[in-house]
Known about the structure:
Layout: E1 3-8, H1 14-23, E2 27-32, H2 37-42, E3 46-51, E4 77-80, H3 82-90, E5 94-96, E6 102-110, E7 123-130, E8 133-136, E9 141-146, E10 154-157, E11 162-165, H4 177-188, H5 197-212, E12 217-220, H6 225-238, E13 242-248, H7 256-264, E14 270-275, H8 277-283, H9 290-312, E15 316-318, H10 323-328, E16 354-356, H11 364-373, H12 378-381, H13 401-420, E17 429-443, E18 446-460, E19 466-468, H14 473-486, E20 490-495
Parallel strand pairs: 1-2, 1-3, 3-4, 4-11, 12-13, 12-15, 13-14, 15-16, 18-20
Antiparallel strand pairs: 5-8, 6-7, 6-9, 9-10, 10-11, 17-18, 18-19
The structure holds xanthosine-5'-monophosphate.
Amino acid sequence: xxxxxxxxxxxxxxxxxxxxxxxxxxxxxxxxxxxxxxxxxxxxxxxxxxxxxxxxxxxxxxxxxxxxxxxxxxxxxxxxxxxxxxxxxxxxxxxxxxxxxxxxxxxxxxxxxxxxxxxxxxxxxxxxxxxxxxxxxxxxxxxxxxxxxxxxxxxxxxxxxxxxxxxxxxxxxxxxxxxxxxxxxxxxxxxxxxxxxxxxxxxxxxxxxxxxxxxxxxxxxxxxxxxxxxxxxxxxxxxxxxxxxxxxxxxxxxxxxxxxxxxxxxxxxxxxxxxxxxxxxxxxxxxxxxxxxxxxxxxxxxxxxxxxxxxxxxxxxxxxxxxxxxxxxxxxxxxxxxxxxxxxxxxxxxxxxxxxxxxxxxxxxxxxxxxxxxxxxxxxxxxxxxxxxxxxxxxxxxxxxxxxxxxxxxxxxxxxxxxxxxxxxxxxxxxxxxxxxxxxxxxxxxxxxxxxxxxxxxxxxxxxxxxxxxxxxxxxxxxxxxxxxxxxxxxxxxxxxxxxxxxxxxxx
Length: 508
Ligand code: XMP
């Protein structure tokens, strides 16, 4: 297989670049900026290198750098945003620090033909997000495009091997970004179109077989698409040596243990359901801080898994971790922590089990493609995502059994109405959150002072960005009426109209 690598200089979008390359049927993975020159030099089938954007200014003391010998390998390089500035400064271009910022959609003009812009209009809209500006390029380079504020919005060297673009080709807001990436991959790098989901599945099965060998493994099955897909994939690799464990934390959806039992009953997979409610409620007693909750839950999960693993002598813990869990947990070299996903940032340091996470490079929609490819039942594939910490992060404040029961019922009613009104598949994820406040109302001619449920419904592709779903008002009314009628503790229902960013999907 040919491949194009992405060198991560700290952008939240680095992985999206690799994903775009894979969408164009070429294998791609993200490497940290510290990847050694020799490692890159020896990579098999390497056809191109993309340097990502990043939040730093190249003038900051600790701003990320690369081993610049990579630029001399003769393999085409494309620098995006910070990557563009880094190349410009290294080759002797003039980069102005802290100049006028360009943020958002900007008019861009192509100044000269380039294989990168093959058959593209001369004027187009691109998405910018930067402070430093490239002012000039040295001999051996020419300027291929500009915007009002960036005289060097794109450049190319004379031999056509090094390219820079100040804007982000990987986001959909850049009109022809996808075509530019296509041009880079096929016209410049001459990569072959030889990567697809079948290859991914075959490669992963080989990799898992090699990694786990004859050892035993357990997987934490939550009933969501990630862990179910992971279980199906790993079963293909190691068969009966995989045991699925469902930890009933007490923070699961109503009837989840029964649903999961029936979902996997037809699979050739042993399932153990462990009632750990007491442990989790005790662990979270008096805890209100979201990060603390996530860390405690992450640790308790591992302790439960360790005990179960000892019983069957399993050495490996398989997790359905996906890429957004990793990036938001701040687990790449230059990224910041948004929240510690229980299965990444919430893991304890002293853990006995070895981790195996075959889906960690994929986004949710790619996991769904793998699921289809390996025959995971459709009713599991279409399920809305549900976070590992469960309802604990949908209860703002302390998690008591009474508050769990309220939020469980609210989530059940919401789900029921979405299904009954054929709206479940119209939204990407929908859930109810219990707020830590009481408000005044009037019920049966008397004053009430009750709690509040917030409804959150979002449209997304990969969970990295999301827009609130524009739900019909009559459906919202039905849901709200049922929640206030059927749950005696609730006197008010509100609807969350925040996109991601600036909000995240979950409230905690
Ligand atoms: P956020 O809230 O970060 O969520 O915008 C993005 C997606 O991830 C889910 N989520 C989690 N999934 N463990 C998980 O397995 C977690 O700790 C976790 N936190 C959030 C969330 O439901 C959404 O689909």
